[in-house]
Design a protein that fits this description.
Blueprint: H1 2-24, H2 28-39, H3 42-73, H4 77-102, H5 117-129, H6 132-145, H7 152-176, H8 180-188, H9 190-211
Helix pairs in contact: 1-6, 1-7, 1-9, 2-3, 2-7, 3-5, 3-6, 3-7, 4-6, 4-9
């Protein structure tokens, strides 16, 4: 088991970091959390955040189960997966680097939502599940970790870890970024965040693509 931890641990950490980096830069999901927290209440924002986190967990489970089945039957699919995942990460990197270069403000619209807790939670799930980019992002993240001979605990560890990161991070957004003042503070450092995220995704994407050309690569 110790040997497996040393072998797969770096890939799991890279996958966790890639997922966390994605959450760090506000997209439609994060803006929905902030807007609800500012316009309705912090409680409403927290419930939306839990719904979005549940949606993320669903995508993680779906990606792991689907890709594990494909890799078990078609080992060559792993190379295709790395190319697709690497290209998508490079595309994301270009967006972040361009955003850092051009600049721009985070446009947050306060959302007044009149729903009960169940309705808010379902809305959060819906926001995540109807985001087509989420599927591509999960494909990219999982391409870092999954391979035909990976033991089952790797996939389970990834799902559990991603679930924890998702809930903690999205709830943090709802709590911390519920006022214009905090959003403005983040805005002042947004270029730095975008530069770091873009650089990280560039290195990760290139690494995934180049890994298929390495003799005996087991990424």
């Amino acid at each position: 088991m110790a040997d497996q931890l040393l072998e797969y641990g770096p890939y799991l950490l890279a996958g966790y970091l890639a997922f966390f980096m994605g959450i760090m830069s506000p997209g439609p999901n994060i803006l929905a959390i902030i807007g609800t927290s500012m316009g309705t209440s912090r409680r409403a924002g927290l419930i939306i955040a839990c719904g979005i986190s549940t949606g993320s967990l669903f995508w993680a489970i779906l990606a792991v189960l689907g890709l594990t089945a494909l890799l078990a039957n078609f080992a060559w699919f792993g190379s295709i997966l790395r190319v697709i995942g690497g290209c998508y990460l490079l595309w994301l990197a270009s967006k972040y680097i361009r955003a850092a270069w051009v600049g721009g403000e985070i446009k947050v619209t306060a959302q007044i939502v009149k729903q009960d807790d169940v309705g808010l939670y379902c809305q959060g799930i819906g926001v995540q599940l109807t985001n087509p980019k989420a599927a591509l992002y999960w494909l990219s993240v999982m391409s870092i970790i999954l391979r035909p001979d990976a033991p089952s605990w790797v996939a389970m560890t990834m799902i559990v870890g991603v679930g924890i990161i998702s809930f903690v991070s999205h709830i943090a957004w709802a709590i911390l970024f519920s006022t214009n003042r905090v959003v403005g503070f983040y805005q002042s450092f947004k270029r730095v965040f975008d530069t770091v995220i873009g650089t990280f995704f560039s290195a990760l994407g290139l690494g995934l693509i180049l890994s298929i050309f390495k003799s005996g690569s087991r990424v």
